[in-house]
Structure formats: structure tokens, C-alpha cells
Amino acid sequence: MQVSKTLEILISLALLYFLFSTVVSLIFEWYSHKTQKRGRFLHETIIKLLNDPVNKSYGTSLYSQYSINQLKKNKDSYPQYISSSMFADALIDIIGTQSETIHFTNVFDSSKSKNLVEVKMEEKRFSDPYERFQKGVKQMNYSPLKSQLRAFHEKTKDYPELKKMIMDWFDDYMARVSGWYKVKTKRTLFHISLLVSLAFNVDSIAIIKKINSDETLRKDLVIQAEKKINQQELKAIKIDSSKFFKDYEQAVDYIKKNKKQKDEIEQMYLNRLDSIVSEIENSSIPIGYYGNWQKAHGKHFLPIWICGILISSLALSFGAPFWFEVMVKTINIRRAGIKP
Amino acid sequence: MNDKYNIHSHIFTGKCAPKDFLQIGLNLGDGVSSFLKWLFLTKPVSWLIEKLGSFIHNKTLQFLKIGVMSSQGEVFANLKGTYNNSNYSDIKIVALSIDMDYMTDPNKKPEQDFNSQIEDLYKLKKTYPDTFFPFYSVDPRNPDTIGLKNVKKAIESNAFAGIKLYPPNGFFPFDPRLDGLYKYAEANNIPIMTHCTRGGTYFIGKDVWSIISDNPLSLNPTHPIMDKVIKRIAAYKNASNKAFRENAKACNLFTHPENYLPVLDKYPKLKLCIAHMGGDVEILGDKNPNSKHAKWSQEAMFLEDCTATWYEIIKQEILVNKYPNTFTDISYSLCDSSCMTQLHNDLTNAEIDNKRVLFGTDYFLVTKEDAELKVVAAGENHLKNFFSPMMSENNKRYLFS
Questions:
Q1: pLDDT at position B306, please?
Q2: What are the pLDDT digits (tens) for A141-177?
Q3: pTM of the full predicted structure?
Q4: What are the residue boundaries of the Amidohydrolase-related domain, all occurrences included (chain B) (predicted)?
Q5: Host H or E run for residue B117
Q6: Residue B43: alpha-carbon gap to chain centroid
Q7: Which of the two ends of chain A, N or C, has the fewest CB atoms closer than 10 A to its terminal CB?
Q8: How do residues B6-43 score in pLDDT, each as one tens digit?
Q9: Per-residue model confidence as pLDDT tens digits over B262-302
Q10: Which CATH number is B322's domain given?
């Protein structure tokens, strides 16, 4: 086989996988949005970060802290994004609260009847949040978390410095969390890829056979791939789970500004999905359950078809950015090196 | 106008309970029950339970609806809301916390641990100082019990109105680690509420016998009841009926009302409420129309080497002049008309001191039987003129005298 033909097949396949993995990514995004996958994962990881069996589950306390609680869309949901600034403020507040003393006095109408007239509340708290934090840490029993929080206080001079240090700590942790999230989402992505492959009959083996034998289709796909790269649509379509917290920050701003966010976000996903599906339909890629699709593999149709679907599922689960990259690289090799 | 109190309610949520909490009542094993609890707390299922619960008044659904609520504040608001349009709209609520951190194996601990549960109760007290009166739960396995640092802070600030014990979660009331608590409570007239029925929650860890010593330590080791306790443990351990060797029934060893006699003899002025009057199984004994329960009571009585039911023991050995500050409450038992008829007869015949019986419902656990207001109405109908003082004078005396 000629090298240029191999490259053309590879470019065509990369284009195909890129388009379908974009569909997979969009479905995954929609699914994550509906099931609050990110919110729940963020909740789990913060609970883990602030787990302190010796004292209390500070993660739970953080989520019930007023400013964090207000981020919830409804009472059963978890915020999908917590900024490091908000995290730091809330943590300093819940730790500082431990330094507060409160006293209630029951005021009875008479000592005999013991009917309550009122319960008076007297609260004693440090007004300086930096000092409150220090006193709050002091109230904790020794634990690794206490040691960490105490170190934050010892290394800083005032509230802004303390906040900055906690923010950096949270950001570092979130960078690791993004990695864990990526690993966790791989399985879900594979399942969605499998469903997409089955729904569109994306059989890699049949497609390779078709591209290999049909030169017009191959050339056509290569042209489309080149167009796609020229359009540089990556930024608009790219859904990189490693950056999901930052992406969501923009979404949160948008949500705050727009009350109809729920419907609009759903509509946004649908519109994007619609445009990708139209693109696939226009690309004359051999997919779907049309005509004699079962005859593509002869008499051993079923095992080969299953293998084809599984290969596609695996490929699609790599994600759109990966296949875009493959497409760019192979086109560059074709353009630079081997002239047809 | 007299203040009214519901002396016995719970507002903890599913998050405060261990992961395998649903083993209680379902007997499905820890794996399945952990999965079910996770499933119930997932957004779509909890949403479905909440929506269905609003339309269908199935008792289990109502119970689950409260269990899946997102916070203790929401459960409390739900309870207060129930009373809002009733004759008891001004009722004050005593919410009993339960330390569930030790009621199972360490890897199944609740998502919201006990200290965090308490923190939420502090916040609720600040929000509703006039109507909300929480009790602080004490478990001797919690390291704080020895120094009582957190308990004292909670009580002395008046944020918490009393102490809650829940022995079937895995400890004996005469545990020597509780000695300091009883001493402190007696000296300061602090009310203690303790669970006493054959039902309710219990220790759900894998090996219940790992926490029941053949010869348990006692704060009053020479007390005559201790020999009986040792024999009782051996009888349960070697019971021919396998059910008595399993967690649900074996934990009755912790709950037995006689376990309080060594405590009360050491601290006779202790203000102690033995809740539920021993529960329906023990109030009705062999007269229980539920033949299974009647048989259970008789079989247990034989194993426990007792000649009286728990209700009789509470009446004859605990609510006595020797212990001037002992009480019982009608919570949960009030939804059983036979139990209330029995209590009414005993009150009328002065077999039980009417000043020592308190009113409570055991919300939200009682929703498994009926709605809160219906349960209150049932109690009022059966107990007639005894009911109002239970809700007001008796409860006030228990809380504030």
C-alpha cells in the first residue's frame, strides 16, 4: 500500500473519530450536567480533603456554610464549582467558629410555672477573622488537619496572606482532583462511546474497508479534514475535563446573569449536538443501518461487527481533542513530507 | 397559657446514619443495605421519594421522605410545619441527637459524623432559640465522654437541654466510662433520656459479640443485678433460638431496664427518663394481639431470667420513690391503642405516678406508623385528662426543675 494512501486512510479515520467523539463529549457533558456528576465528585473530594476523624467532618460543615450552601441550585444539589477564594473564606470561617462561645438564658414567667418568656442569646466572638482562625485551630484536638491549618497560620502575617495560602493549597489539590476526575470519567466515556457506536453503527472495520476501496470518498474526507483544521474550531468544541472547574466558573457567571439558565444550557447542548450530527450526515461517511450493511463482513458478520463496534467505542472514548491532534499531525506529515 | 413540649423527637438525616443503616429492618446484609442507602440518597431517587411522598400518603414513603431530606434544619422545619395549623402550633421541640459513629464497623461510618451533626444543632438553636431544645448524645466509646469537654460546653451554654443515651447502639448504661457523666448530670440536675424498647436501631457491625463481654465492667460492680446481667449474657450467647444470638435481639442486652438499677442506686437523684415505657412488645407482654410479639416477649423474659415485662420493671423498680427523678415517656408507644389503654388503666389505678409520664412522639421514626398529628390525636384520645399535663407540667418539670 502506498504511504500517501495510508495517510489518507488515517486522516479520514481521524476525522470520523473526531466528529463522533465530539458527539460523545457533548452527550457526556449533558449527562454530567443532568446527574451533577461534577458536583458530586467535587463534594466527595472536598469531604476527603477535610476529613478529620479526631475532630469532625469539616467537609460537611463547609458545605453547610452559608456562602457555599447558597451556591446550590436546589436543596438536593451540590455546587459544581467552588472557587478557591470562596473555599478559603468558608474554611477560615468554619474553623474560626470553633472559637466562638455562646450562651442561652432561659427567662421564665415565674419560677413556679416554668413557662418560657424568651430564650436570650449571648454570643462572644473575635471580630478579627485572622485571630478567630487562630483561636479556632487552638480549639481542635491534634490531628494532621490541625497541624496543616496551624502551619498556615504560623507562615502568614494577616488575613490576606492566610487566605492566599489556603487558596494555593486548594488549587494544588484541585489540580490533582482533575486528574482523578479524568480517570473516573474514562469508564463513563467508554459507555457513551459504545452507545453512540451502536446508535450510528460506527463499525471501524467496515469503515476502513470502505475508505480503502473507495478513492473518491477517501479524497473527499481528506479535503473535509483539511477544511476542519483550517476552521480551527477546536476551542469552541474542545471539552477538556482537566479544566472543567475553570470552564464551569464561566458557566456560573453566566448562570448568575441569566435566570433561564437551565433551559438555555440544555438548548445549547442540543444545538451543538445538532450541528455536529448534520456535519456527520453531510460527510458521506459509511455509517448507519442502511441497505445491506450486514453484508459488509460476509458470513462472519457478527463477531467482526462486534469487534468493529468495540474498536470504535475505544477510539471515541479518547475524546475529540486527541483525534483533532491526530488529524492535524497526519495532515502536516502529508503536506510537508510525501508529495503525492 | 402553659408551654407545651414534644419531649422526644429526632431530626437527624440519612447523612448522619452509617452507610449500612438500612440493615435495620431490612435484613439484607451490609452490602445491599449500603447500596440501597446510597441509592435512596442519589438525586433522582430522593427526588422521586420526595415527589411521591407529597402525593401518596404511604407510611414507609413518608418515613423515607424525611430520611432523604438534605439537612437537620429541613427536618426540623418539616416537624414544626406539621404543628403550625393545629392546636399545638406553639409546641416546643426537644430534638434528640444520636451518636451513630460507633454503631457499626469503622469503615461504614456516617458521611456526616457526630460532631458535625452537633454543629448543625448549635446553628439551629441559634436560629430557633425559643422553640428548639436539643439533647446531646453520649456514647462511652466516643473519647470525649471521659473528659466531658464538649458535653459540658453544650450543656453549660444552655444550647443543649439534656443528654441522650442510646445503649442498643453498643454499650451498657452501667459502663464505667459513663460514671463521670452520671455524676455531673446528677449534681447539675441535667435530664437524661434513654432508649428502652426491644426495637429501634441497634449495633449493626459484623460481630456483635465482640462488643459484649461475658463479664462487662460496671460503675457499680458489686450491685446484685450484675450477676443477673452476666447470666443473661451467657443465656443469649448460648440461646437455642439463633435469632437471640444475632444483632437485632442481642442488643436488647444493652437496652434492658434493669441495667439502670446499678446506675440509679449509685446516683439515686439522677433525672432519668426511660423512654417508650419499654415499647409495645413489653407493655402488652403475653396479651399482645400480635402473637409473634407475645411469643418474643415470653421467650426473652425466660432468657433474661425475669418474671416481669420491661414495662412492669419500669413501673415497679424504676418509677419509685427511691428514685425521685425518674420518668418514662409515651413516645412511639402512643400510636398503639392497646398500649395507651393499658397506660390509661394504670394511671387511673395509680399504678404509675402520672407526674412521671412525659409526652413525646418519636418523630420522625413514628411516621412509619402514622402522621405526627394523628399520633398526637391518638394519644390525646386515649389518655384524656392525663394527656395535657404530660405535654406541659411533666415535660417542664423534667426539663427545667
A1: 93
A2: 999 999 999 999 999 999 999 999 999 999 999 998 8
A3: 0.77
A4: 118-370
A5: helix B114-127
A6: 30
A7: N
A8: 999 999 988 888 876 766 655 555 556 566 666 666 66
A9: 999 999 999 999 999 999 999 998 888 889 889 999 999 99
A10: 3.20.20.140
C-alpha cell at A14: 481521524
Q: Which of B130, B125, B186 is nearest to B160 (CA)?
A: B125
Sign of torsion, CA A297 A299 A303 A305?
Answer: positive
Do A104 and B111 lie within an 8 Å CB cutoff?
no
Q: Grid coordinates in use for B146?
A: 471521659
Contact (CB<8Å) B70/A76:
yes
Q: Is the ipTM of this complex over 0.85?
A: yes
Residue A183 near chain B (CB below 8 Å): no
CB contact under 8 Å between B130 and A116, yes or no, is: yes
Out of B155-169, B210-224, B275-289, B348-362, least confident range: B275-289
If you measure CA to CA, which chain B residue comes closest to A103? B157
Backbone angles phi, psi at B330, to 5 degrees: -95, 10
How far off is chain A from B232, nearest CA to CA, in Å?
A: 35
Beta strand residue intervals within chain A, DSSP E: 101-108, 116-124
DSSP state of A314: H
B128-149: per-residue pLDDT in tens? 999 999 999 999 999 887 789 9
Smallest CA–CA distance from A62 into chain B, residue: B116
Residues in B closer than 8 angstroms to A34, CB to CB, are: none
B349 interfacial to chain A (CB closer than 8 Å): no
Tell whether A110 lies on the interface with B, counting CB pairs under 8 A: no
List the domain range (segments joined by +) for residue B334.
Answer: 5-400
Task: Name the closest residue on chain B to residue A36, using Cα atoms.
Answer: B43
Distance of alpha carbon B214 from alpha carbon B226, whole angstroms: 11
Residue B32, burial from CB neighbour count under 10 angstroms (0-12, 13-18, 19+):
middle
Which parts of chain A register pLDDT below 70?
1-3, 232-273, 275-277, 279-286, 296, 337-340
Structural domains counted in chain B: 1
- Put simply, the answer to whether B120 touches A64 (Cβ < 8 Å) is yes
Shortest CA gap A60–chain B (Å)? 6
Q: How far apart are CA B79 and CA B5, in angstroms?
A: 13
B5-9/B162-165 β-pairing: unpaired
Residue A133 distance to chain B (closest CA, Å): 17
